[in-house]
Amino acid sequence: MTKPLELVASQFIRNYGINVPEESIKRCEDSLIGYINGEIDYQNCHSVLIDHIKSDDPLVQIKAILSVGNSPLPSYSSNAIKFTRNGRKIVKSWSKIEDNRLLFAIHKFGLNNWQKIAEFVGNNRSKTQCSQRWFRVLDPRIKKGPWTEEEESLLIHLVQRYGLKSWKQIAEHMEQRTDTQCRYHYNLLPENRKVQFKSEEQESPSEEQPLTPLPESLTNLNPSVISQFLDIQFPQNSEFFDFETSFTV
């Protein structure tokens, strides 16, 4: 499985490799990933990138991520926290150094230890903020181009199914779209494209239909006549045979 920082490196290469043959792109990706894993030194990687994409910027960016150091950014005082008029906390925008520390921490600890990642980043960043920053912004697999008609149709269908408060669940079914993207784009859709919401989960299951009673004309038949058609063996003393009870399933 490709590591997160390797995905980031590939994205850096492709951002600078527009109109470059795929073979050259692949050569640069392999070199930069080799540098990340200590298999290629800086100078050799630099030469490959200059030869194929005429820029060493992807290498410079990766080196900056790998060189952040182990000391977390200092935490700011609680007095520095600002709030809106209605009392909501104002979240500080992420800086480039914070992003670099986050990417290196993910490279170091993986995607399942957000508490350690948050402690490594510092600057009072919480594990929730760190995970959301990766999954909603930095993950190179996020699709950021225009929405297709097929995507919009699927989005509308998923909103009908899960409702307007289940964006994470909806995003799980949308290829390379985040929960934030789904919510924002749905709100931008014209009303004539939306279908009135009715959750499938809220639909009450249809009640089980009662068994239809046997027609009176059938129950009045002589059991010996019925047995010829249904191949049923009746008791010899058919006088006490309860026909309707015997056919109840």
Descriptive notes:
The protein is an all-alpha fold. Among the domains are: 4-67, no CATH class; 96-138, Orthogonal Bundle (Arc Repressor Mutant, subunit A), CATH 1.10.10; 149-191, Homeodomain-like (Arc Repressor Mutant, subunit A, Orthogonal Bundle), CATH 1.10.10.60. Helices cover 52% and strands 0% of the residues. The protein contains 13 helices and no strands. Helix 2 packs antiparallel against helix 3 (42-53). The longest helix has 15 residues, at 22-36. Keywords: DNA-binding, Nucleus, Transcription, Transcription regulation.
The poorly predicted ranges are 197-202, 204-212, 225-232, 234-249
Main beta-sheet annotation: none
Percent of residues in beta strands: under 5%
Q: Helix/strand/pairing class, anyone?
A: mainly alpha
| Proportion in helices | 40-55%
Compute the average pLDDT.
Answer: 82
CA gyration radius, whole angstroms: 33 Å
Specify the number of helices. 13
**H/E series:** HHHHHHHHHHHHH
Instruction: Choose one word for the global shape.
Output: globular
Total number of strands: 0
Intertermini distance: 55 Å
GO biological process, one term: regulation of DNA-templated transcription
InterPro entries: Homeodomain-like_sf (IPR009057), Myb-like_DNA-bd (IPR051575), Myb_dom (IPR017930), SANT/Myb (IPR001005), SANT_dom (IPR017884)
GO molecular function, one term: RNA polymerase II cis-regulatory region sequence-specific DNA binding
Pfam family, one: Myb_DNA-binding
